[in-house]
Amino acid sequence: MRAKAALAVVLVIAAVAAWGYTVVGASRADQRAPTVTLVAPTTGTVVRGDMPLVARAHDAESSIDRVDFFVDGEWVAAATSAPWSVRWEEAADHPGERLVQAKATDAAGNARYSAEADITIADEEPPAVWIVDVDDRSAGSSVRVGATDNVAIERVEVFAGTTLVGVDLVRPYEVDVPAGELEGVVLKAKAVDTSGNVRYSAAF
Question: Which CATH architecture has domain 128-200?
Fold first, then answer.
């Protein structure tokens, strides 16, 4: 019986060899995470407009499946083929200091994050400003102004013609103008945001 079993094993091995197969042990699954480096943007970068997102990724045991990009921990974009580069078109809608990071995932599902880059997205959107109304009083007039911004308003200025007649730093914005200074002149308001962007209101 043992002789028959041994003969069967020999015949199986011979058949496998005849077909060109090699009998090997089970291969070890890929458990090693890829390497990834955020190439752009780099720490200290000031971004204006669209933000290029570029990473360098490598995997020694399989291949890179995708690279995801994150801003302040939130997913914003992904590259699914090399070169690992995309553009984040919504960057201008998120002004301020931001942390950017890349994550590489290989074909076996292993993943690794890059170091973070501390960058600044410039605020280039001017505020909105308008004159709400003018309350005439015996001692003068009170000019009420509305202003909004995507970040913050620094100050509101009121002009009678080309003359600056008052400044307010705190909402609700209201400037008192002495009697007679508004007669026969065009009234305008100017809003300045914390990034230095400026806009004037329509004439009132």
Answer: Sandwich (2.60)
